[in-house]
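Attaching the record inline, Q. Sequence:
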Amino acid sequence: MVQNLDAAQYAGAVYLVNPKRPVLHGRQCLGSVEELPCGVDCAVLAIPASAVVEAARTCGRMGVGSLIVFSAGFAEAGTAGRAAQQELAAVAREYGMVVEGPNCLGMVNYRDGVALTFVSNKHCAQREGAGAAILSQSGALAAVLAVNMQHHQIPLTYSVSTGNEAVNGVEDFVDYFVADSSTRVLALVVEQFRKPQQFLAAAVRAQQAGKHVVLLHPGSSQAARASAVTHTGAMSGDYAMMQALVRHAGVLQVETMEELVDVTQLLVCLREMPRAGAAIFTESGAFKALTLDLCERVGLPLPQLSAAAESALREALPAFIPPSNPLDLTAQGLVDPTLYRRTLPSVLEDACFGSVVLAIILTDAQTMELKLPPILDALRTLRPAKPVVFAALDEGAPLEARFLTALRELGVACFPSPERALRALARVTQWQPGRAVVPPAADPALAGRTLPSGVWTEVASKALLAAAGIRIAAGSLVHTVEQALAAADALGWPVVLKAQSTELPHKTEAGGVMLGIDGEEALRQSWATLQDNVQRYRPGLVLEGVLVESMQAQGTELILGARRDADWGIVLVAGFGGVQAELLHDLRLLPSGLTAQAMEQELHQLKQSALLHGFRGSPALDTAAVAEMLVALDVLMTSAPQIREIDLNPVVVYARGRGALALDGLVITD
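Structure, as predicted:
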């Protein structure tokens, strides 16, 4: 760390504290923390874990503003380590100190040449303009990302390894960078958000300040979620919930380190977010076909040329090259290098395209000297407002640094392969802006009620749901077959029988649901069968009654629900029901506070959304009614904090204008 500071020519005061060595690296050491002057900005603790808490307490007494704790052996190391970490946090709160770590790699301030990390740091003079900051719970990945980004000449402003986050976590640093004018992009590696709602609010503020937050979050697999516990002491959360909520906050999520670097480069280079739709120049018919395949897989639209652009290209191209997108220039650039200068203007000016990708074959130095000068000349002359991306088709070609520098000075993002460029461009163009989500106002008629705790019966659940404005089937709770017959006569045949017990939350598995009962004899037989099924499933169980409901018309089945997460808050879910729910996992997770219109738009993002619009002659469905039902669930969850979970399965949705109906409901309270 001292060598890093020297290499960066850090001009501030540096104090070394070591009770055993009077001199280190040619510098005099102090014998104890008490010998420090008051008001040191930051103390770096590179000492055994057992000594950290006491050293932190002494630093607090000496007025030290912040701590960086390299030492491992805290929350990631078991019960004793967690206790020590909690004690460290208590000391920090007592003295008002910022703490990075423990179990971290430190931080680097590239702008001011302050490298407080034990990893050898390459000091690079940063060019003017906005750059990227790295925030990573993993110290190793913070270091690796810095190397990768510097290799791609992405200007870095900071790199922060937050480690176990005993006191300050990624959300605090995101908040700090909201006000940092030199940072445009925040590249995050997060294994678990310890303060999720604070992070979501910080991410929205970052976007409002013109920043982009890019997230790599390991943990989509079961094995990754298990390993996170031992790596940084993180307790794994629900990955799908995280994914949905950060997306609504405007966070751009990637899946690999490569994507994190590539998307960061694009966002640093771009003056504004590109519109969807790319134009691609290449020099290989086979690669043109591969590009069409790849762009379809990653979701990058390739619009057709406008009539004006197609006409201009026909004049500029030899007769054997047909205008198209992607545009295969063949090997003609080798014999006619002005081809690039002649063809670029019409495509750059075509409003159909949000960006232009140059996937060029370079091969050797002579080929580069032929092709790149006319490309650079076109870009210098045209100064395109839309993003331009350069990607050599042959990664091993000796691309000279002067050409790379010239391209980057023109704001062109440069990639080692077209595949990486196209994947990154797809991620960026699919991004949707986030917004602050305001929870709905509580319903006074529902708020303040004391609710019984535990799993509710369907009858009790539906009574609460109906009070919240959710449409349910008419029904009656009965205790004898004679009462059931009377109820059926009143409701109208055919009817449904449903066993009611808090110990049978899933009645179908117990044979506790009888459908399509039409007439006295059928009802008596169904009643006996239901009772027998339940006794075989749970001997000795005494039912709280049987729910008799009118049999409803068939429709498309959906699942709606709501869940209160201890960290993330209220999350709603909507998806297709029946077999599809288990086989296809066709669900959307939604944050609390969306409008009915936004809820309806989310329904149209389901994989099988074509079924909602009127598929193969069937009528379009009443998605507006489903959206209103989701809003009602949101209000109910907000009004009754005791509710942990609500499940409406199935909800039958009918043709537009005919509404939706919750056929079953389950409420679970704390």
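The chain has four domains: 2-269, 278-430, 474-550, 556-669. Residues 365-382 form the longest helix (18 residues).

More tomorrow.
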